[in-house]
Amino acid sequence: KLATSYIGCVGRDEYGKQLEKAAAEDGVKVQYMVVVDKPTGTCAVVVTEKVRSLVANLGAANSYKVTHLQEAENWKLVERARTCYIAGFFLTVSLDSILAVAKHFSENEKTFVMNLSAPFISQFFKDQLLQVMPYIDILIGNEAEGAAFSEAMGYNTKDLKEIIQKAVDLPKERKDRPRVVIFTQGPDPILLCKDGKVTEFPILPVAEEEILDTNGAGDAWVGGLLSQLVFGASIEEAIHAGNYAANVIIKRSGCTFPEKPDYKPPQ
């Protein structure tokens, strides 16, 4: 039986309670660090012609400390986990926490997944990203994040197929576990770079009139991917699940799901 745990920082307020309640309803165990001097982070979503923009108030999310992670009950979750996913946004908060987890996963041959999250991460937090890079088994980004990464690294190319190969080739702590990099491209095919080869995976088609908004589509895609990886699926099979999840999300208002999925793994 698999379980999912989530660690972060919230305020002692109603939004923090909502986050914990929503997670519990979906079977996710939360181990929040709780602060009293800042509110739980919130984010306003503005949808214009089906495309979303985000305005965030990070609040307590910026206050996470590695000391919370090091508490016995919390570190036990890290030790028991087989797969870990950390958003690139967390590079702006607690690099020490990321490195502690990343090194543990590398030393114990477990899967460490990270997301570039936004162009500004590569632009302004490149040094922090590169400290974590040797431990990343699967790196995920979209076309804008890939382009920003290329510019920050001085690659002098806008060709995503070149950029993704260069990201794969960056130094890796465990040479026996080559890095895999995935770039999503909105309506264009997913790019996967694995074992020195770039492969394209078409997304699932959706009619323009079926799209309500794109809010949560990227996160849903990653969730779909991870949902299959933890059960031992290949990265190719997991990409198929990510495409399915994103396809469902963009046809619904916000990041919401039908009560039961109708996902069918590729034959």
From TrEMBL:
<protein>
    <recommendedName>
        <fullName>Adenosine kinase</fullName>
        <ecNumber>2.7.1.20</ecNumber>
    </recommendedName>
</protein>
<keyword id="KW-0460">Magnesium</keyword>
<dbReference type="InterPro" id="IPR002173">
    <property type="entry name" value="Carboh/pur_kinase_PfkB_CS"/>
</dbReference>
<dbReference type="GO" id="GO:0044209">
    <property type="term" value="P:AMP salvage"/>
</dbReference>
<comment type="function">
    <text>ATP dependent phosphorylation of adenosine and other related nucleoside analogs to monophosphate derivatives.</text>
</comment>
<keyword id="KW-0547">Nucleotide-binding</keyword>
<dbReference type="GO" id="GO:0005829">
    <property type="term" value="C:cytosol"/>
</dbReference>
<keyword id="KW-0660">Purine salvage</keyword>
<keyword id="KW-0067">ATP-binding</keyword>
<comment type="subunit">
    <text>Monomer.</text>
</comment>
<dbReference type="GO" id="GO:0006144">
    <property type="term" value="P:purine nucleobase metabolic process"/>
</dbReference>
<dbReference type="GO" id="GO:0004001">
    <property type="term" value="F:adenosine kinase activity"/>
</dbReference>
<keyword id="KW-0539">Nucleus</keyword>
<dbReference type="GO" id="GO:0006166">
    <property type="term" value="P:purine ribonucleoside salvage"/>
</dbReference>
<feature type="active site" description="Proton acceptor">
    <location>
        <position position="219"/>
    </location>
</feature>
<feature type="domain" description="Carbohydrate kinase PfkB">
    <location>
        <begin position="4"/>
        <end position="258"/>
    </location>
</feature>
<comment type="pathway">
    <text>Purine metabolism; AMP biosynthesis via salvage pathway; AMP from adenosine: step 1/1.</text>
</comment>
<dbReference type="Pfam" id="PF00294">
    <property type="entry name" value="PfkB"/>
</dbReference>
<dbReference type="InterPro" id="IPR029056">
    <property type="entry name" value="Ribokinase-like"/>
</dbReference>
<comment type="similarity">
    <text>Belongs to the carbohydrate kinase PfkB family.</text>
</comment>
<dbReference type="InterPro" id="IPR001805">
    <property type="entry name" value="Adenokinase"/>
</dbReference>
<dbReference type="GO" id="GO:0005524">
    <property type="term" value="F:ATP binding"/>
</dbReference>
<dbReference type="InterPro" id="IPR011611">
    <property type="entry name" value="PfkB_dom"/>
</dbReference>
<keyword id="KW-0418">Kinase</keyword>
<dbReference type="GO" id="GO:0005634">
    <property type="term" value="C:nucleus"/>
</dbReference>
<keyword id="KW-0808">Transferase</keyword>
